[in-house]
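Late entry, written up from scratch paper. The run itself happened at the end of the previous shift, but nothing got recorded in the book at the time, so transcribing now.
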Amino acid sequence: MYYRIVNELNEPLDKELDSRIQSQGSPRKKRASELYRLMAYIYSFAERHSLKIMQAMAIAVNPEVYIPVIKNAYNSGLLEIQYTDIGVFMPGSILIPDILEYMQQYQKLTDEAHTWIHSDGPDQSYMTDYIWESRRRTLSAKLPSRFESVFLFDDLEVAQKYNNQLYDNTGTIATVELLSQRALGNYDMQWIFNYPDSSACLTADSYARRYWLGKQSDECIWEYLYDGTYSLHAIQSC
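Output as recorded:
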């Protein structure tokens, strides 16, 4: 039996629902989709230059912090700048034309997307959504997308625990009847919870790959991604 934590205003009981339609109404999934190309560009830059992902994010999102130092170096005749000179505490250097091109291209992409990554608020956390979805597409398009699936539990106690921790017990826990299935898979959500935000691309990729390959962590908690139609029902008292 499967369980789901729901808001009954958005997911009424005893009605046929579609995970893809429900996902369209999720503010997080919608925003993660809007920022997908921007996150892909930042991740690619971090990977090419062996930067931590959030360091590459900061350079793109807060160019005003870095431009004065870069301009001073360039005006001094330098074509390369040490990472430590721009507040990135790691050995090595980067070509000034490369970092300026990165900033300019990011701004161009924000114009095309008609949005940008805000320096405060939750926007930067959506890099995790990009990494997980990107790795899913690399491994197999047949795996259920987190952007199109609903999240289920197979253990009522676990569902109750997360209703308390994540939703302050404001959600309704319902049983889930699977109707027309497009994809279903179970994955250890601890890989997402324990993924270090300050990591480099190789580390991020390893966490995402372990998740999609169904590997278990030491404190495994299974979540089920279901892409398809379903119906929710009230839990019957014994």
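The chain is about 45% helix and 20% strand.
(Scratch paper discarded after transcription.)
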